[in-house]
Design a protein that fits this description.
The chain has about 400 residues and is α+β, with helices and mostly antiparallel strands. It contains twelve helices and 18 strands.
């Protein structure tokens, strides 16, 4: 049984999301405590089970019965709902057995109480809402009555054993990980958060001087996409971004693993996409995302992927060998008043501590550590005594992007 406080935290995150004017949420009653507890607990235990030797991934949505009886209409979108002829008992065994029949990125198992007394919960069917769109290569076209989207309801998605993403509609409100709930935060890449440290380096790039904020937005989107693809692969990794004019100096703190002679020209593709704008060809977008996918695979090799701020590949499978950091590690600002608490990174293992040491010694580097269990932690140096850590740089992204975009 999960602690009551965890369920209260999840419901609190739902309430906070609803009260945020930027979300433009329809005001709805808060989720029922028992409903939320049953869905989260059952999903947690189901995520720990194996089918044919593999852990299963799945999505659960708690749906009111009146919305399941008919097709859901919401802002000219709907979902495709199929109900079973006989309800299936909602427990961890049933979920693990049926989960592999459905793609958790596009389909959820529909769960609801058996009766008003909530003596039992059943899987009543499945809801299909289709793959998510991505700004790089998808044109967001919606057809009245035909387009599909997640409704504004609770979604619990198992992404790895014991790791759950808690969503509302197509957005994330938090993660349940290692027995704790982590509330979603505003985008860490905004200028008042981690973005100020990334932009400090990007402003030195020639393309930024030429295209200004257009280049900034594409560069940040590229970072988001790269981190998402690495996270989705589930093997973890470390990505280090170094300013181009610091490569020689910082190389003393890196044991280069594998190095290619050729350049992948990701930055040139970014430039071309900016020039072509909305008229850019699908082949250019495909080439661009293929290059980032290639880099994402390299990051899954043990040790670190080393890139310049412009996405030039320096090496992969590289060892960071900086001296031990003796200063503080604090939670970075989120742009809306949060942050500043101590972040205990020493318990997270060699990969995280190596990243902290590197940032401490090479103050203009930006490092991301992708954990196998889901979170992507970002690191930047604030001053001589403080390193800032953003605990999960993907938690505020759209649910579909975290779970893996179809392309």
């Amino acid at each position: 049984m999960l602690e009551e406080e965890i369920i209260k935290e999840i419901i609190g995150a739902w309430a906070e999301d609803q009260s945020n004017p930027l979300r433009r949420r329809t005001i709805k009653p808060l989720p029922d405590f028992k409903d939320m507890r049953v869905v989260v607990e059952t999903s947690f235990f189901a995520s720990l089970k194996r089918e044919e030797g593999e852990f299963v991934r799945f999505s659960i949505t708690l749906l009111p019965e009146d919305l399941t009886e008919t097709e859901i209409q919401s802002y000219f979108h709907q979902q495709l709902i199929e109900t079973f002829d006989k309800p299936i008992i909602f427990d961890d065994n049933s979920v693990s057995k049926i989960a592999n029949a459905f793609d958790y990125r596009t389909t959820s198992l529909i769960v609801m109480p058996k009766d008003k007394a909530k003596s039992e919960y059943n899987i009543r069917g499945v809801m299909y809402y289709g793959p998510s769109h991505h700004s790089f290569y998808d044109i967001p076209i919606h057809y009245v009555g035909l387009s599909l989207i997640r409704p504004d309801e609770i979604f619990v998605t198992a992404v790895s054993p014991g790791s759950l993403v808690i969503g509302r509609g197509n957005s994330v409100i938090g993660r349940f990980l290692s027995g704790k709930f982590y509330k979603a935060t505003p985008d860490p890449f905004v200028s008042k958060a981690m973005g100020q440290y990334i932009k400090r380096n990007i402003e030195r790039v020639e393309e930024y001087k030429k295209f200004q904020n257009k280049y900034w937005y594409y560069n940040i989107d590229s970072i988001n996409y790269l981190l998402t693809q690495i996270s989705y692969r589930g093997s973890g990794g470390t990505v280090v971004f170094i300013p181009h004019d610091k490569v020689t100096e910082y190389s003393a703190s890196i044991n280069s693993g594998y190095v290619f002679k050729e350049c992948f020209n990701v930055n040139k593709l970014i430039e071309q996409m900016i020039i072509e704008g909305k008229k850019r060809s699908k082949s250019l977008e495909k080439l661009y995302t293929e290059r980032l996918d290639f880099l994402a695979r390299l990051a899954c090799i043990d040790r670190a992927l080393i890139l310049t701020t412009e996405f030039s590949l320096l090496s992969f499978g590289s060892e960071l060998k900086a001296t031990e950091w003796k200063g503080k590690v604090d939670v970075g600002p989120d742009g809306v008043g949060g942050g500043g608490d101590q972040f205990v990174i020493s318990k997270l293992g060699t990969r995280h501590n190596s990243a902290v040491n590197f940032v401490g010694e090479r103050s203009e580097s930006i490092v991301f550590v992708i954990s196998k269990d889901g979170p992507v932690r970002g690191l930047a140096k604030k001053d001589e005594n403080t390193i800032l850590c953003w605990p999960d740089c993907l938690v505020s992204m759209f649910l579909g992007e975290i779970l893996g975009v179809e392309h």
